[in-house]
């Protein structure tokens, strides 16, 4: 991986698809997803924009590669956080990790498409991320459609709260951590308990 200080050009000899994505993420982190252009990346890599076509097919592909990288980062982070945990604890750690990622990387999170599973270039990364949620929910006996519905609920809570927070949308003084913990508790309480006694 090519390392560079913000605004520095990456040496031409070090240019690769991975390095181009690294620089694209640096542009996004500093200036937002709207600032990502081939010209901006080329300026940092020390090449003319046409030279980037040796590594990416164009801006659209670069955005897809960025999205896949972000999802892989999230997958690795969430899986590591949930490892060795189960049940309510695993769900809570996963949802806290989601919020933490958005708080730490709001711009690159905003660069994600809303539905990567319908993009052939991103479906693999999106599926890996989805599998982390599905694995966490198996302990509740949730599979197939029921697991997808529960995953959508968890994602809606985490994405909605974190996105509003990142945009400065919570203006009242009440503690945001407390609010988010209440949301996690509400979601966990909605999950089935396979070992609960059945009513006659």
TrEMBL record:
Protein's UniProt keywords contain Acyltransferase? no
Q: Does the keyword Mitochondrion apply?
A: no
Summarize which parts of the chain are annotated to bind DNA, as ranges: 37-56
Q: Which stretches make up the HTH tetR-type domain?
A: 14-74
Q: Which domain of life is it from?
A: Bacteria
Lineage of source species: Bacteria, Bacillati, Actinomycetota, Actinomycetes, Micromonosporales
Know the name of this protein? TetR/AcrR family transcriptional regulator
Keywords, A to Z? DNA-binding, Transcription, Transcription regulation
UniProt xrefs under InterPro entries: Homeodomain-like_sf, HTH-type_TetR-like_transc_reg, HTH_TetR, MT1864/Rv1816-like_C, Tet_transcr_reg_TetR-rel_C_sf
Pfam families under this entry?
TetR_C_33, TetR_N
